[in-house]
Amino acid sequence: MKLENGKYLGNNSRTFYKDGLIISKTTYQEKVFEGWHFHENNHLSFILEGGNREYRKNGDRAVIPGNIMLYHSGEWHRNNNTQHPSQNINLEIEDSFLTHYEASFPTGPYNELKTFQTHAPLTAIKIYHDCLVADQHSSLSIHQQLLSLLQTAQTPLQSEKQLFAGRAFNVVELLHDRWNENISLHDLSAVTQLHPVTVSRHFAAYFNCSLGEYMRKIRIGKALSLVRQTDDPLTDIAYQCGFFDQSHFTRTFREQTGFLPKDFRKL
After folding, report:
1. Are 79 and 53 in contact (CB under 8 A)?
2. Where does residue 12 rank: exposed (0-12), middle (13-18), buried (19+ CB within 10 A)?
3. Looking at the domain that runs over 213-266, which CATH code has it been given?
4. Nearest-5° angle of CA 56, CA 62, CA 66?
5. Which of 50, 90, 180, 194 could make a disulfide contact with 83, Cβ separation 3.0–4.6 Å?
């Protein structure tokens, strides 16, 4: 089965068209077609609620809230055991958008795109927030954020030898494995065998953000499912995710997603 522009097996509750982009929130309230299908366009799907088990030609995996899924145009897949309700935020990218900006969709293996996975969920939420705001700056903001995200996926392939000489994967593993600890430049120096000054100079150029910003993105990423899937007080979630207090957590959450945590919980 082929799904045309902006079409999904669930029901779209909101859909926005932005010059070659189709942004939608899709809800699954009951069982839908579970056979093999593909989409006309490349797209990203952020799992907001629920989840399922997904099958592709190279295997299967559990898809849970907080995951960001990449689908290439024409890529066959199928889903079953969908939890109801499930909700996804979908960012569909028409070829005209990629051609216009001379951009490309990520091509690397999913498990090697960990930096992309850190940025992508927060970008998807922020783009959806910009759609809801719908002011004169929304389209520009949405295009800029998506292009920046696509560049993030390509940067490791293009500049790994130049910047970290093959050590970037070790950096990413360390940051994600010890996300709730206070990581120092000396920790990064040890894992890369580079001088702390060298690590400091190249980190921002490689990851398009500072070390502190990268760690805040990881921690907010951990908080997304807790805010949506639990009734835990926001203060408790803030402490679980390594923030000093709820105020710091709320401010960072809004910076990274556009939403206040309480509003994201209601989305």
Report:
1. yes
2. middle
3. 1.10.10.60
4. 115
5. 50
State the Cα–Cα distance between residues 8 and 28, nearest whole angstrom. Answer: 10
Q: Residue 220's CB: how many other CB atoms inside 10 A?
A: 24
CB 99 within 8 A of CB 27: no
Supply φ then ψ for residue 110, to 5 degrees: -55, -40
State pLDDT tens for residues 107-131. Answer: 766 555 677 888 899 999 999 999 9
- From CA 104, how far away is CA 125, in angstroms rounded? 21
Token reading at 175: 């940051």
- The encoded tokens of residue 215 equal 């760690």
- Cα four-point dihedral sign 123, 117, 226, 220: negative
CA distances from 62 to 66, 90, 118, 163 (A): 12, 18, 18, 34
Q: What is the pLDDT of residues 138-152, one digit of tens each?
A: 888 899 889 888 877
Name the fold adopted by 2-110: Jelly Rolls (2.60.120)
pTM: 0.82
**Sequence ranges of the domains in the chain:** 2-110, 164-208, 213-266
Residue 38 near residue 56 (C-beta atoms within 8 A): no
Q: How far apart are CA 76 and CA 87, in angstroms?
A: 21
